[in-house]
């Protein structure tokens, strides 16, 4: 097992030494700052242990942990459970981080640090025997090393000191990577005089991370922070707001003069970027910005929102950065009319995801720009079918303002005219505010047909309602082999309950056999729960009874019959295109049958 331990200097060595003693077969790496921690993300540790008192912005660290270490078992050391610690635990839970060790090390029983390294908190049933935290007497320690008990006591003292003095010490208010002030510092600042706010967003930082690695991205951030420090006045505040966003507070500065400051910073940044070692002729790391003015009496958050809107408007008017523009334009060559198709099922295991993938492939091959979106956060990621690995997905849009800024960077081109928006990299369900998913779909559907794979029992997922209400067509997948009249009668009303009109529902019947039920009888069962008497849902595809062959090939990265003009998949795609008024051009030449994995390696 491989474990990374990240904690404040002093406590770090004590923690790592004790863990190495109790887990002698494990390999341990240590990190004393967020920069050092996230530089180890590419090493794929099995376990990551992070102290609440790691220098830097704790909220930003929590936000990045599940994204940078999606496959790792993450353990948080919270310390004594006071009000600050409780707030930290609540914030961690928002990002799906629940394995928290509380109290003076080794932690409050039964979930001590030793137990935490090998199991999730909710799964702990008993204390792991034989793992006791050593508290050597000072005279028994080797080489004069301080006892662990003394170190823990010192750590508790540091906790109290840090929490009381946080707003009085410059070090506690600084972001460790960039040297800028933290978001928490600005939110607690007492700003009385008039000032201009500049909201800055670094462009193309994600491609730098993806192509050159997160260590390179951290170098860019550190260089940007250094450039700000060297070119702003002492009275000005440079704040790392989060991720690739920065905020500048310029006291007694008009918006016009703030523009001049930004232009000077832009010129200095052009000089500084080559020194980061990231420019290879293909990546252009610039920044966009928005400016707003506060007379000293207005709400800071309102001023920030105004600056955010100004930045968005400026970016809409300006040409996109060359890398992203070329990437995006190469995918969407013509408009599809902006349609949304959702694939739904009332239970798992009925081939819903296979239907969504097959439909997307065939519409794309018919010349319709298509985007396949994975809204089934807890199910198999559609990226697996296309051999797309270790790519962040829709979870990166959680909490983002103006998602169009970020959505383009997450899309993965898997075939001509076909992009995918992958699902979450791990099983942690991302949280979306009401309206956020609708905003994502509204943006994507401006330029392509959006096909959404939805979760089983969709009616229990409150975030899905806004998508069903927007859908132009809903494909309701029914598994005939386990057909139940009562079950199917309940299916349609649940769709209608989410805001879908019966006229927008079409039925896809899997495992179909005429020996069991006719298509008309399937329709009658499905429509029995609908009060309307016209424009009722109808079956548009019947997948044959050798359905298992379709499923097995699907999980091998193949779709049975995908290239057969007479297959039910082709008929389904043609029917959907016709319903939506989209042109469907059949290829004149039958393609050689290949697995999806071999088809999509070239991205």
From TrEMBL:
Q: Which InterPro entries match?
A: Diguanylate_Cyclase, GGDEF_dom, Nucleotide_cyclase, P-loop_NTPase, Rev_trsase/Diguanyl_cyclase, YlxH/NBP35
Q: Name one GO cellular component term.
A: plasma membrane
Mind listing the GO biological process terms from this record?
cell adhesion involved in single-species biofilm formation; negative regulation of bacterial-type flagellum-dependent cell motility
Which Pfam families does the protein's record reference?
Answer: GGDEF, ParA
Asked if the keyword Ubl conjugation belongs to this entry, the reply reads no
Q: Which GO terms describe its molecular function?
A: ATP binding; diguanylate cyclase activity
Where's the GGDEF domain? Answer: 193-327
Q: Which UniProt keywords apply?
A: ATP-binding, Nucleotide-binding
Does this UniProt record's set of keywords contain Nucleotide-binding?
yes
Task: Please give the NCBIfam families that the UniProt record associates with this protein.
Answer: GGDEF (TIGR00254)
Q: What is this protein called?
A: Diguanylate cyclase
Q: Which organism is it from?
A: Desulfofundulus kuznetsovii (strain DSM 6115 / VKM B-1805 / 17) (Desulfotomaculum kuznetsovii)
């Amino acid at each position: 097992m491989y474990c990374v331990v990240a904690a404040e200097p002093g406590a770090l060595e004590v923690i790592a030494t004790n863990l190495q003693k109790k887990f002698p077969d494990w390999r341990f790496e240590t990190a004393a700052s967020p920069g050092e921690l996230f530089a180890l993300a590419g090493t794929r540790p099995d376990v990551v242990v992070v102290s609440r008192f790691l220098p830097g912005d704790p909220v930003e660290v929590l936000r990045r942990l599940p994204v940078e270490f999606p496959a790792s078992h993450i353990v948080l050391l919270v310390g004594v459970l006071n009000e600050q610690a409780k707030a930290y635990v609540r914030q961690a839970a928002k990002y799906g981080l629940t394995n928290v060790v509380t109290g003076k090390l080794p932690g409050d029983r039964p979930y001590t640090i030793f137990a935490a390294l090998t199991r999730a908190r909710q799964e702990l049933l008993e204390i792991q025997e034989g793992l006791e935290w050593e508290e050597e007497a000072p005279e028994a320690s080797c080489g004069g090393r301080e006892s662990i008990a003394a170190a823990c006591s010192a750590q508790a003292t540091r906790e109290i000191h840090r929490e009381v003095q946080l707003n009085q010490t410059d070090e506690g208010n600084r972001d460790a990577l960039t040297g800028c002030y933290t978001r928490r510092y600005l939110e607690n600042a007492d700003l009385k005089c008039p000032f201009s706010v500049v909201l800055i967003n670094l462009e193309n930082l994600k491609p730098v991370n993806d192509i050159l690695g997160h260590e390179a991205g951290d170098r860019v951030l550190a260089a940007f922070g250094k450039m700000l420090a060297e070119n702003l006045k002492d009275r000005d505040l440079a704040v790392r707001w989060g991720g690739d966003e920065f905020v500048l507070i310029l006291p007694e500065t008009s918006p016009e003069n703030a523009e001049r400051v930004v232009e000077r910073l832009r010129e200095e940044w052009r000089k500084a970027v080559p020194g980061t070692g990231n420019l290879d002729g293909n990546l252009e790391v610039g920044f966009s910005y928005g400016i707003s003015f506060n007379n000293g009496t207005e709400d800071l958050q309102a001023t920030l929102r105004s600056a955010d809107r100004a930045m968005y408007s400026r970016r809409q008017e300006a040409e996109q950065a060359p890398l992203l523009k070329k990437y995006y334009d190469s995918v969407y060559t013509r408009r599809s009319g902006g349609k949304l198709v959702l694939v739904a099922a009332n239970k798992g295991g009925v081939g819903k995801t296979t239907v969504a993938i097959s439909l997307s492939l065939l519409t794309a091959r018919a010349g319709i720009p298509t985007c396949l979106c994975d809204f089934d956060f807890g199910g198999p990621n559609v990226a697996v079918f296309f051999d797309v690995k270790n790519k962040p997905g829709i979870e990166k849009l959680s909490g983002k303002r103006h998602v169009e800024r970020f959505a383009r960077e997450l899309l993965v081109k898997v075939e001509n005219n076909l992009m995918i928006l992958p699902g979450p990299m791990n099983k942690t369900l991302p949280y979306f505010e009401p309206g956020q998913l609708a905003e994502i779909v509204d943006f994507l559907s401006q330029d392509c047909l959006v096909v959404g794979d939805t979760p089983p029992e969709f009616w229990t997922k409150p975030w899905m309602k806004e998508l069903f209400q927007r859908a132009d067509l809903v494909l309701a997948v029914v598994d005939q082999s386990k057909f139940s009249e009562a079950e199917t009668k309940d299916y349609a009303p649940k769709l209608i309950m989410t805001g879908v009109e019966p006229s927008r529902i079409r039925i896809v019947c899997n495992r179909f056999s005429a020996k069991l039920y006719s298509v008309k009888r399937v329709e009658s069962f499905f429509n029995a729960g609908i009060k309307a008497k016209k424009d009722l849902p109808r079956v548009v595809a019947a997948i044959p009874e050798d359905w298992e062959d379709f499923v097995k090939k699907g999980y091998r990265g193949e779709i049975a019959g995908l290239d057969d003009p007479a297959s039910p998949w082709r008929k389904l795609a043609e029917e959907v295109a016709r319903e939506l008024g989209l042109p469907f051009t059949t290829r004149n030449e039958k393609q050689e049958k290949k697995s999806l994995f071999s088809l999509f390696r070239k991205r």
